[in-house]
Amino acid sequence: MSEGTRLENANPVIFQRSGERVQTASEEDEDVHDPIDDREIFDILSINDPEHPLSLEELNVVEQVRVKVNDAENTVGVEFTPTIPHCSMATLIGLSIKVKLLRSLPDRFKIDVCITPGTHASEEAVNKQLADKERVAAALENASLLEVVNQCLSTRSI
Amino acid sequence: MAAESTLALSLVEEFVSGLQDSKAKDAAKGVKDGKFTVLQLVEALGSSLTSSQPHTRARGVHLLSEVLQECYGDLTEREGTPFSFHILCWHCTASCKVTNQKCFQITAFLYPYMSSDDAYSCQGAISTQHFFLFFSTVEVLIAFYENRLKDHYVVTPPVLKGLKALTKCTNLPPGSAVSMLRSVFQDIHVQSLMLSERACVYSMLINIMETREAELKGLGADFVFGFVQSMDGERDPRNLLLAFQIAKNLIHGGYDLGKFTEELFEVTSCYFPIDFSPPPNDPHGITREELVQALRAVLTGTPKFAEFLLPLLIEKLDSDVQSAKLDSLQTLAACVSQYEHKHVAEFLQGLWTSVRREVFQTSSEKIESAGLAALTALTSCLSRSVLSSDSEDSLSTFLDFILKDCKHHLCEPDLKLVWPSAKLLQAACSASTRASHIITVAVMPSLLEQYNNRTQCSHRRTLLEVVQRFIHSVKNCQSSDNDESVLLAFREALCSIVFSALSESNSSLQITATSVLTSLAQQAGLLVESDIELALDHLTRLLLTEEDDRVSLAVVECAGALAQLHPALVITKLIPKLKKEMFTEPMNQDQEEVSELHSHHAVRQRCLSALAAVSIQPSVVQESTPVLLEVLRSAHTGSVNFSVDEVVLTCRSLQRIAERVQDSEEAGRCFHDVFIPHLLSLALQAALQGEGSSGTRSPLVEEVVLSAMVPVISTSCSRLQPTLAGQTASRAVSLFLDGDVSFLPDNSFPSHMQLLKKQEGDSWSLSRLVCLLMGSVCSLPRSVEVPQIDKLLSALEEMSCACSHPLSYTSAAKCFAGLVNKKPQGDSLDSLIQRMMKRVCSELDSPSSSVRTQAFTLMIWVAKALLLRYHPLFTTLTDKLFSLLDDADLGPMAADGFSLLMSDSTDVLNRACHADVRIMYRQRFFSENSAKLVQGFNAAPQEKKPNYLKALSNIVNKLPKQVQVTELPALLSLLLEALSCPDQDIHLSTLSCLEPVLVNPPQVLIQQLEALINRLLALISSPAMSVRIASLSCISTLSHFPVHEVLPFRARVLRALAKPLDDKKRLVRREAVQARGEWFLLGSPGGR
What we know:
Chain A is of the alpha+beta class. In chain A, 35% of the residues lie in helices and 13% in strands.
């Protein structure tokens, strides 16, 4: 982030983190089956933003209410909200979310990632791109794109 | 004589022509031992030194230099004529053999160094016979070496070596150091030399700078110039460390840099920021950090560099490389500590812009905190400067920049930049009192106004947190002087927002408010008494009404902080209210409303923890403990209804008080006169009642309560002063041995109680009181002598072997062990242990015995007591313990016993109880016994092997991490075996041993990677979820192994990890998600 590259949105609104999930007694019980729920998917999505050292949660890009999971029917739906309506990173954020879910969920799930309706200028185009399996696969063949996605998904060290 | 010179000659011959380097050592040894003198060596060298072959000359000089390097100390001692005479002889012979001309050259060369008389007497002395008499050895050698610098380049390395040896001479003749340097600078181009020769030149400079500082300073800037020339272009890190050291000495030693200041800066700053990663297996062990520190010491050493350094730092801060930014910021913070405002004035705007950018847009905490530290340093540099009437006040100019850029962000508490701005302002604020005045006055009113205007709780909380950090940073800069607080003007406004926040219903706002309150109270002289009273009222109200655990925790903490500062107010305001609340019976008792009861229980719980938290000052303790003891007494008599839980909590609070109260005579009296007798008396009353009637049982009869009382007694006893401790010991012993109850309050006990004798009908309500005896006599300082100890020990031994009640026999065993641990070394101790072992062994060896468990318990505790003090008889007990691993019934128990031996016990035999605990007893036990264990494992029948593995993993698990890492490789195959045996406990404890080792994997582990991964992947489907979690977390750590080692396993691991993603337990899935994510990143672009 040198001086040359200006941030698109240098001073975004910050939202509070929801805190660690409280561990319940039933979660520690060997015999109880814990279904995959919205919160669990939401916790998986604590991804770093490509521009800010903040998680998508703190930027309100991902909210728990916009995560829908149906364990029985094997579907997961995530809607994300770019910080500004013409955010050029929208596709990248969507792709990161998609990749993270693909890596973290059993393959029985159908994963649907799209932009929260009415929050982005080129909403349709992005949604179409994210829904297209082949385009997602092709994007991940692209080494430099994969590199950015992986950086979002790795826990920051320095 | 002849023999000596032949010896020297033969050594020279073998070194020069035979090229045997070892002969140099022999020659040096010969000189040192006095077998021959340097003279004779030099004579012997004659022909090689004057040879026409440069390589032979180089060899000759090499030998001489090597010898000098070893013997430079001897040289100075024997300085004087005899030696120089011989040198002379050598020169003469040499000159005769070559040409007379050469001799003349040498004479002419040495001529300037002679005094006029000497010169006169030597004039015309072509033979130079007497000429050299006037020179000391060192001078002659120096002259010789300086001259040789002009020789063929192959001669140069040994010559430099010789010069280096000469610079180590403590009494170089005046002027010679300078002359040496001049010739080196003149005749040698340092950077075209090899690595080790360059190092030689640098060490020469360092040596001379140490001993001949004044002479070098006389050289003026020439010396600096010479050095700059010789280090210009240096590339080797080892030499750079030397060169940086010289540069640092130049700067700190006050050498005249003259017109070469910029040159010196240029020649060193070109390495900034250091970019160096040592090659793997680097034998020199130079780290990047060393180089960074060395260079930083040079660059920040003098304000003369300011005009060059600051622009460089601004430029490097623009870099994309994180480490460059970090280094620049740290260097900035270091350099300004030497500067005055005139040095930084023209760069302020640039520096501020760069620092602000780094903090606003940072991606790493390290850079952020380095940026803030740099800002603090810069501000304090500006605050230090003395103002003159005509110059502008650069501090306020600079703070104006900061305020202009940051203040407005504080008005947007929901945007990202509010925190970076606040941190920048606080960093500047904490630099000096003046800065904190300027910034607080500018910022505080708007923050307070904001707080009052905002309605959203999250905004208010952010503002309050910002305020708190300002209070904190103001505190930091005010520690020394007693000025009145900067915040005094805002006292009322601050108090009012804190109290209003405490009255809000939002819990996070309340929590923040309590910490603001604590910070305010810690500002000396800020709050007045009425503020504290009001604060205590608010805290009491929250304690009694607020259900949220986090809030009550914060409130309790805040009350504790206030009690430290204002004990009197806490005694009058807080404690009576808490007491009243605790003794109120819950309302509507008839209706038995569960929730009501529940909330009442919660209130009592909070009151108890608050009472414990405020009791640090002895004066408060004297008020709070009677309340707690009163609770216990009422619970026992039943006058007020307290649940068992509440009674246990009361004991915990008492324990916490005993731990935290400040050491003083007062506190000791309180323990001795109040705590201990009251607790013993209550326990005894409850035990007698439990034995007698049925009816309503006192909660004090419960075993949990009794167990909670033990730490109260033991903590109090461990903190007693020696005289009181002695009294307590004799009281406790006479109570338990003789039934002497005279010191107990409420004395209505039957006489002649036999607490340690077997009770009629095997009743254990009295016998288990032995745990209280353990609490008192085992926690006393080691100097205190326990009376009637032999009688006591045999009673305890009897009880621990005969009683059938677990708490009773375990406590008796622990008590026995605690006393054995402190008993002085000697025959009586040895015979005591042998007697006990005899009894224990006879019980253990008869399979039909009903008290085998008891005997085992006694043995393991005594073993621990002996292990801790390194008693030699310990091995007898361990051997028995090892043999029990094969026992059908006691085998698993013996395996668990190893965990007891290796872990710290909470109630006896720890350092807090003044037990005799030697350092590293665990390592010692491990190193003495691991081999036995491995042997036993190999010899054991298949069905007994798990016991050995369990014992091993119990031992390894408790070893300190560093030891585990070094010892584990040897045990690796056994541990891998443990992972494939069927016992889940063994899996778990082995995995927990392995995990720390995996962070820094030793080579052995990497060799066994295949086996390790196979076993871990198998454990992913273990029926126990804790094993699944632990193995997944190990697999996650494996992904950080060297990439080329683990990459071959990537596909297999990813496939295997797909399954636990659908595990039925959420905690397992979470771990699997983490591990699979890491493994996906492995070997992928942007990953690892």
